[in-house]
Write a structure and sequence with these properties.
There is one protein chain. It is globular, with a radius of gyration of 20 Å. It is of the alpha/beta class. The mean pLDDT is 95. Strand 13, helix 9 and strand 14 form a beta-alpha-beta unit. It is built from eleven helices and 16 strands. It folds into two domains: 2-143 and 304-338, Alpha-Beta Complex (Quinone Oxidoreductase, Chain A, domain 1), CATH 3.90.180; 156-281, NAD(P)-binding Rossmann-like Domain (Rossmann fold, 3-Layer(aba) Sandwich).
């Protein structure tokens, strides 16, 4: 079968490899659509904190079951599915506390323990495989993984209502907007340097969208909220982003960080102390978040079809898909690779 490898900085090669052999508790999935994620870009650019070339890309997948292990009972050949792409060790303190994403020995795609999703076939444990409704396209189903990130980021906050600011309106920022709007946060304000991203956010429920290069975001937020946001979520990695987040938050407000900021940036931490701001990080998601994301998609509580802005046909064009997201030569929210019809 074919698989797309990052072999060097900004270089992808499609190679022939052996098809995965499944265990008794796994299913084998023929990949239909695979999402291009920001973390794939970190690997593509050579800046990922722990994954390095050569490695197979991808972890956002929707597809069709083509084989089941002897102990599998929930799925059969022909079922349409998505996958929560992480498996905890099951015995460490984090796993015992339900924090699979924080397991130091968890298994994730694209490593020596598990094949990446940019492959024609992908193996997954039954317990992390989820059914995809027949009414939902594979393209929309592939959004389950990034939506789970958004669900986890919002649910992690102690702030359950009120004014929300989202700094960065890329894929995760837009999905945070969709989920937070459904949860009832109001008003929701977003920022982004790209005009398309701001317009997309306004179309999908943002009360306002500001360009941080041209507008005083904290001042505008305070005007709209009467003193600052109850919750600010950092979904971008500009050098001043943490300071900006604290300036947007009201006293005793909350700031969450979901952006993967891999370089050191300055941060005036006294703003946290002076205003007694709570600060938290959001790392991926937990199984309950993924299950909630799948329910939102399968039940159409969230309509996400137009969040997929580009679909590149064929695994051979994986490099093109990565470059499209990396360079943003055209308006982008989510890029997918269509692996098979």
């Amino acid at each position: 079968m074919k698989a797309a490898f990052v072999t060097d900085v900004e270089n992808v090669e499609v190679k022939e490899i052996e098809r995965p052999v499944i265990s008794d508790t796994e299913v084998l999935i023929r990949a239909k659509t695979v999402g291009v994620c920001g973390s794939d870009l970190h690997l593509f650019r050579g800046t990922h904190p722990f994954r390095h070339a050569p490695a197979i890309l991808g972890h956002e997948i929707a597809g069709e079951v083509v084989e089941t292990g002897s102990a599998v009972t929930k799925f059969k050949v022909g079922d349409r599915v998505t996958v929560e792409p992480q498996v905890g060790c099951g015995t460490c303190e984090m796993c015992r506390r339900g924090f699979v994403s924080l397991c130091a020995d968890k298994k994730v795609p694209g490593t020596t323990k598990w094949i990446g999703a940019f492959s024609e076939y992908f193996n997954a444990e039954e317990r992390i495989t989820y059914p995809l409704s027949d009414e939902i396209s594979y393209e929309t189903g592939t959004l389950a993984e990034p939506l789970a990130v958004a669900v986890h980021t919002v649910n992690h906050a102690r702030t359950k209502s009120g004014a929300l600011v989202i700094l960065g309106a890329g894929t995760i920022g837009q999905l945070i907007l969709a989920f937070a709007k459904w949860k009832g946060y109001s008003p929701i304000i977003v920022t982004d340097t790209a005009e398309f991203n701001r317009e997309f956010a306004l179309k999908h429920g943002a009360a306002a969208a500001f360009n941080p290069l041209e507008q005083d975001v904290p001042a505008e937020v305070k005007k709209l909220t009467g003193g600052g946001a109850d919750l600010v979520i950092v979904a971008a990695g500009a050098d001043n982003i943490l300071d900006q987040a604290c300036q947007c938050a009201r006293k005793c407000g909350e700031v969450g960080i979901v952006a993967m900021i891999t370089s050191k940036i300055p941060f005036y931490s006294y703003a946290v102390v002076f205003n007694e701001i709570d600060l938290y990080g959001a790392m991926c998601y937990e199984p309950k978040d993924f299950a909630e994301a799948m329910d939102l998609i399968n039940s159409r509580k969230l309509e996400l079809e137009d969040y997929v802005t580009q679909v590149v046909d064929g695994i051979e064009r994986t490099q093109e898909g990565l470059e499209l997201l990396s360079r943003k030569t055209e308006p982008v929210v989510k890029v997918l690779i269509r692996m098979a019809e």
